[in-house]
Amino acid sequence: MSAAALEAVELARSYGARTALAGLTFSVDSGEILGLLGPNGAGKTTTIRLLTTMLRPSSGTFSVAGVPSTRPVDIRRVVGALPESAGYPEHMTGLEYLRYHGRLFGLSRGDASRTSERLLNEVGLAERGLSRIATYSRGMRQRLGIARALVNNPAVVFLDEPTLGLDPAGQRQVLGIVRDIAQRRGATVVLSTHTLPDVEEVCTKVLILARGRVLSAGTVDEVTRVAAAPGTALLRVPTDGIHRAMGALTAVPHLTVEATEGHPDVLRLSLRERPDDHPDSASTALNAALRAVLLADVPVRSFEIEGSRLSDAFLSMTRRSER
Ligand SMILES: Nc1ncnc2c1ncn2[C@@H]1O[C@H](COP(=O)(O)OP(=O)(O)OP(=O)(O)O)[C@@H](O)[C@H]1O
């Protein structure tokens, strides 16, 4: 059995004729935080539901902490999950809620109480453990949901959009907890989100899905470098040189030149087609563009290559997958 905390091999799921997930293969180690990204309908929730055994795969296998997917009851013992829209019993206190879930996992009364108090502390709810959940804010509910997902001391924790709808302070708190889960507990976290800055901030790895397929996987740096790599650039020249610059750029192959709204001195250069997806080919075309403008004696005020952030990578890859 593999040493990875979480491993999937050719995992697929269809709903009738619709393929929600096709051939998902990846692995993550203990203590890693994997960002699961993708536009609506990409297959993120399906992935989480498969890996937490709420859904059966149409084909493929996976393992969690060495437990194979053929043993779903045992998998449930080693995973924890915060679903996308978790509901809570409003009349219970946070402490009662966690104790109840501890008991469901077979903890003794004493252990369930001790574990619940420790978890309330871990998610910053120690002061509010005796208040009814009805009085909790959205951020407090999310943190309680994360505490619940940790009740069985899982090897892998799945969090579906944990920062959705939280204010910046609430987001910070949740991301701090996510980091602690990985660093202090040594657990693996799978974080499904649309919030790219969250991923850049806490994730060690990223998996980008679109239409049920993997578009890219690797560290944040790798994904950003390969996908977003210099695909567009902003060129600033004196306003009276703009037509000359445009004329010079028409000779550069694979390049689209557009004006930018509200900035008469700025042109956006992008690659019309890519002979291959190698980042160097994009750099070569943009370098040729810059050279052409300089050879036409147009003074270049600035030349900024875009695409060094994960959000650019995400947009460029998901846009390409729509074609
Ligand atoms: N129960 C179902 N029956 C039929 N089709 C489904 C079902 N659940 C999901 N799908 C389809 O499977 C695909 C993947 O959906 P999924 O919910 O996994 O995407 P997602 O990435 O989580 O999207 P979102 O970001 O909107 O939550 C979509 O095309 C969706 O319409």
TrEMBL record:
InterPro entries: AAA+_ATPase, ABC_transporter-like_ATP-bd, P-loop_NTPase
CDD domains tied to this protein: ABC_DR_subfamily_A (cd03230)
Keyword Nucleotide-binding attributed: yes
Domain ABC transporter: 6-236
Keyword flag DNA-binding: no
SMART domains from the UniProt entry: AAA
A single MF term (Gene Ontology): ATP hydrolysis activity
Domain of life (superkingdom): Bacteria
Pfam family, one: ABC_tran
Keywords annotated in UniProt: ATP-binding, Nucleotide-binding, Transport
UniProt family annotation: Belongs to the ABC transporter superfamily.
Protein name: ABC transporter related protein
Organism, as annotated: Pseudofrankia inefficax (strain DSM 45817 / CECT 9037 / DDB 130130 / EuI1c) (Frankia inefficax)
